Amino acid sequence: MSTAITRRSAPSREHGPRALPETPVAAATGSDDRPDPLRYLVSYNTRNLTKVVAEVGRATGAYWIDAVQRIARPGDAARRGLLWISAMADRREPTWHLANEVVLSTPFASLRDFTAAEHRDDDVVPTLVLPPQAGHSSTVVDYSPQQSQIAMIRASGLTKVYALDWRPATTATKNVTITDYLEVIDRSIRRMGGKANLVGDCQGGWLATIYAALHPDRVNTLTLAGAPIDFHAGESVIAASTRLMAGTMGMAPYKALVAAGGGNMPGSAVLSNFISIQPQSEISRQLQLLENIDDPTHVERYRVFEDWFKYTQDIPGAFYLWLVENLFWKNRLIKGTLTVDGRTVDMGAIDCPLLLLAGSADHITPAPQLFAAAEKVGTPAADVTYRTATAGHLGLFMGRDALRHDWPVLMETVYGHSVPSKKDTGAGKASRRRSSVRAVADPRDTPRVPAP
Q1: Which portions of the chain have biased composition (kind: Basic and acidic residues) (predicted)?
Q2: Which of 18, 36, 377, 428 is deepest in the core (most CB within 10 A)?
Q3: Which of 74-88, 184-198, 297-311 has the lowest mean pLDDT?
Q4: CB of 210 within 8 A of CB of 344?
């Protein structure tokens, strides 16, 4: 389960957000007490190696116990081994599951409209979801028929739902810039009616934040999930590695990666980085597949995740290098020194309701990186909402627990800011809450697939 929502009750900005027990307050306030990056990375990788050894030992023991039990059927081991190899190799392109229509298309992004025909005239502010941009398909927000962030948002009463679909970079789009991405967001919102609820997942979150700071009049509410706003807060292997690499060699290593990708950042390289951060998850996932190869439910859940996780797409090189230098390395967004086309990105201009969702086990974006946003915006304290889900990074966007227990509560709040007050009755809220929970399958008694 997740922790309860917390809101600041006083407008003072002298203290950090009311961080939950697992979130160090000092980190949330931005104090630079981070360990030496090299020492931190060595310690982190040593701990991971221990976890890898433990997982291999566990799986090996389980395998031999199973082998003894099946000793009377020597051909069974070969059969299971072939099924295992086949399941690992059987990859398919991830797809969108809910019916939608592409209503705006550019070479690097498409706007998908998930609004059902019967809800086109609903008196509700439309919602635009910005998926992560980390070398994977945007379909993570409509991950499966049983696990769909889009379906949950619609069921909460926010029936006019759109999502941007980040397209794979090509030679023709390698020079796409931050300006281009912000422009497609603006075009999308104007097409949706001129004002929208923005929901930003991971990198889609900092992109939504930048847009909201530059166009506060177009943003009704801002919801950020697992979004790195203060890239240097908390303990993060990505921040430590960037600090070490860029601090010693500048942008040269990143430029070399982009050059090797023909002007784009290869999605396969991003995937390799994710796996190297938590190799025990990758190993555990494959070994658990072998253990459960005769369980069709587990095999199907494994296949769905692997189809999304292993199907990578390149990132425009110019955009990638910009974000590494300005955000990952120099942390200009939270410092207030970021400029886009000569305009300073002032987070203080954001005054709409702000909702923040962090993961208690998020090793990609620790909670302090997200919660730091509350100290920079101009949103009244009473309109800042914090929530910490019992989830890792990806679990924030597609995990059944987070979609059933955390997102409905947040989207119920967004709904309250998105309809005329005369329609916002207590009974209506309760029914929408139940509906949004039912939109996602109950995770109990189903096999879990280890994921970052």
Answers
A1: 441-452
A2: 377
A3: 74-88
A4: no
Q: How confident is the model at residue 13 (pLDDT cuts 50, 70, 90)?
A: very low
Average pLDDT, the chain: 86
Is there a domain that residue 184 lies in? yes
HSE-CB at 54 with a 13 A cutoff on CA atoms is: 8
Predicted TM-score (pTM) of the model is 0.86
Q: Please give the residue range of the domain that contains residue 382.
A: 6-36+91-438
The CATH number of whichever domain residue 155 belongs to comes to 3.40.50.1820
Q: What is the DSSP letter of 171?
A: G
Q: Could you tell me the pLDDT band of residue 23, with boundaries at 50, 70 and 90?
A: very low
Which of 1, 17, 32 minimizes the C-alpha distance to 354?
A: 17
Handedness of CA 258, 262, 263, 269 (dihedral sign): negative
User: How large is the average pLDDT for residues 196-210?
Assistant: 98
Closest alpha carbon to 140 in 157, 163, 158: 163
Q: Examine residue 51 and state whether it is found in any structural domain, yes or no.
A: no
Residue 167 belongs to some domain of the structure:
yes
Residue pLDDT, tens place only, 250-261: 999 999 999 999
CB 192 within 8 A of CB 162: yes
Residues linked to residue 196 through DSSP beta bridges, in sequence order:
219
Nearest residue to 224 (alpha-carbon basis) of 89, 347, 41: 347
Angstrom distance (rounded) from CA 411 to CA 442: 19
pLDDT digits (tens, 9 = 90+) for 401-430: 999 999 999 999 999 999 997 444 444 454
Nearest-angstrom CA–CA distance, 362 and 154:
26
Task: Report the distance separating Cα 201 and Cα 27, nearest Å.
Answer: 21
Tens digits of residue pLDDT in 209-225: 999 999 999 999 999 99
Task: Give percent of the chain with pLDDT exceeding 90.
Answer: 67
The interaxial angle of helices 237-249 and 252-260, nearest 10 deg, is 100
Per the CB < 8 A criterion, the answer to whether 405 and 1 are in contact is yes
For residues 97 and 148, the answer to whether their CB atoms sit within 8 Å is yes
Residue 426 has a pLDDT of 47
Q: How many domains does the chain have?
A: 1
Contact present, 293 and 287 (Cβ < 8 Å): no
Would you say residue 75 lies in a domain?
A: no
DSSP 250: T
Q: How many Cβ atoms sit within 10 Å of the Cβ of residue 9?
A: 9
